[in-house]
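Researcher: Please predict.
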Amino acid sequence: MPKSQIVKREPQNFGYIRVSMKEQNADRQLIALEPYAIPPDNLFIDKKSGKNFDRPKYRSLLRKLRARDVLYIKSIDRLGRDYNEIIEQWRFLTREKSVDIKVLDMPMLDTTYCKDLLGTFIADLVLAVLSLNAQMERDNILQRQAEGIAAAKAKGVVFGRKAVEMPTDFIGIYRRWRDKELSNEQAAGLCGFSVRTLYNLTAEWRARENY
C-alpha cells in the first residue's frame, strides 16, 4: 500500500473494571468512567480476585491496547492488590506498550501529564505507596477472615460438608463397581449414598490406585 494511503490509527480510550466476586456490582466504577467517552467494545470487566493478573478480560485488554491509547481505571486497587505485580504491570503498560493510564481517584497518577523526569519520579513514588496500601488491605482482609474462621471453630462451628460415613465393605463394593459387576445405582444403594457421592469417592480411590 502506498504511504499516502496508510491510515494513521488514532489513540483510543479504554476502561478496566474489576470486582472481586460475581455477586458484586460494578455500577460504581461504570458511573465513574462514563464521562470519558469509552466505546463499549473498549470496556473490560473482570469479576475475579486482585491477587494476580491472570484474568481473562485483562488479558483481552492487553491484546487490544496500542501505543498512545489511554486506559482509565477508578482506583489503583481495581488494577490489582499485589504490590510487585501492580508495579510490574504499570511499567509494562506505560513503558513497553507506551500506553497512558489515568487513575481517577488519584489525579497524580495520570501519565498524560508531566512526562518529564520529575513528573515520572512523582508518579512512580505515588504508585509505590498506593500499591503497597492495596496489598496491605488485601493482607488485612485475609487475616480477618482467618481470625473469624478460627474464632468460629473455637465456638464449635463446623465448616464444609458433613463427612460421609463409609460402609465397612466399601472397598469390596468399589472393586465390584470398578469391574462392572455393579451398576452405579446398585453400588450407591449398597453404600447408602447418592450416585454423585459415589462418583466423588470412587474418583479418590482411583487416584490412590494410580498414584
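Model: DSSP finds eight helices and four strands in the chain.
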